[in-house]
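Input sequence (240 aa), recorded before submission:
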Amino acid sequence: MAEPSVNLMPASGPPPLALAVEDSHLISEIVGRLEPRERQDARILDDPRALIEQGDLTMAEVIIISYPVMRQLAKYHLDELTSFCRRNNVVLLIRSPEFLDSIGFLEFVDGVIFADATMERVRDILLLSKSGYSILPSAAVMDIVSDRLRCDTLAKLSVIELSILDQVRLAKTNRAIARSLGLTEANVKTKVRAILKALKFQNRTEAAVFAARQSELIRQIVGRQGHEKGVEASDKGLPH
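Predicted structure, token format:
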């Protein structure tokens, strides 16, 4: 993707957006999602230290700071960075695996963009931040990241466990699930407990809500595992 053309210093007033992001590909993706006029007025900070050294100036209406930049600035200029974030509308750009490490920054930013999850909502997030709204409350952030971590765990479940989870989604009892899958009720009960533990759910209701959101992914994993087992059985000359 070609580097976006940006006007580093608009003619008058602060630009709508400034980016302190170390990854040029992420910069291109963000800027590419803006309207043409917004792209022209975007400001790319080649040296993020300008956030600290020019902290008294209004850099932009909204500033996107990536987690690596935020972490580096916090290491040497924590007080100045905290003050800057409190005076400006700041959005933190992170990847889901960085979330747990970034929790300490959430209290003084106005929103979060997940580079691997919510990039399609960039414009909405920036507009809300510009209006002074808290874009992504911590509870919502936790939901997004927890879902992604659980999605990674889904692939580690067996086909029968995934099938049970899919029936939990339908609010079926253990007895009904057992009849449907040809298992004993005790076996289903044991497997439900294992599923809740693996996916870190407190109860079946949480699991059912998650399974409803991820029903398509569950079906894809079941289909993929079934195919892989079929191929393995064919390689060994076994029926499948």
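Checked by second reader. The beta strands are 17-20, 43-44, 62-66, 90-94, 111-114.
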